[in-house]
Automatic annotation (TrEMBL):
InterPro entries on file: Methyltransf_12 (IPR013217), SAM-dependent_MTases_sf (IPR029063)
Region forming the signal peptide: none
Gene Ontology MF terms in the entry: methyltransferase activity
GO biological process terms held by the UniProt record: methylation
Presence of keyword Protein biosynthesis: no
Region (Disordered): 1-25
Coiled coil residues, start to end: none
Keyword list, A-Z: Methyltransferase, Transferase
Protein known as: Class I SAM-dependent methyltransferase
Amino acid sequence: MAHEDHPHHQHEHQHPGHGQRHDHTDVDWAEMGPMLEAQAELFLPLYEHAMAWLGKRQTEPGLIVDAGSGPGVVSCLLADTFPGARIVAVDGSGPLLERARTRAERLGVADRFGILAGELPDVLGELDYPVDLLWAGRSLHHLGDQRAALAAFADRLASGGTLALQEGGLPLRFLPRDIGFGRPGLQARLDVLEAEWFAQMRADLPGSVAETEDWPALLTAAGLRPSGTRTFLLDLPAPTTDRARAYAADILTRTRDGVGDRLDAEDRAALDRLLDPDDKASVYHRPDLFVLAAQTVYTAVRTR
């Protein structure tokens, strides 16, 4: 399951039209790979804090699986955090897994880094050994039956193994409430449309089952013992970097393409202005642009 390692409607945050693969046939993952990798790298400070926290909960894992790895940014960070572990990046996209393998080579961890191509959760049955740490970073919500998927994840864990589930958090923010034109509160109104889009995306997945998103309860139902919950921040204050500006522009462009026809004329005009590279009030130039994200990780342990 190819997915992007950044967050918005958090869904991954998820974003309308964001290339997240629900229909796996119409996305050129080789073309999108560089962008996905760059965006994941923007979130490295958040993931580094998450990994440091995980490192205190699962001290010496032998086998770590990144379920829904995308281009492998988090996979390689797991390798760095746990230098004694073997890492397997699992994804449905061959081109993204090749990016993950190349990244592992570049960072000097290729000797203990493997890839496994296939659709979650069934592909996990191809693993040769039980898993000591399974990281599912915003991949679960792309699976229709999340309860069944969690049970499959739990089934692959070794006794004492940990499942780390990254889901939920808060909507991403780039802009102040009042951006100087249009009605104040544009991003909050976009959040509403994205939440509706996400609900429809979930409903349209094959085998979709509605669930109350009580992740500790679902982890318990999968036979695991919840062991912790923590939310991690990405705080890139204004004035921000060109990479952050590119990220904001991409998110807002995909939002406009995905739900823009549901905006009123004033909000659509404001969004168009934010995305006009020639406008000094756009995200490409405005000095008050920032990136603020909050993403939550739940851990649970297999005790038998």
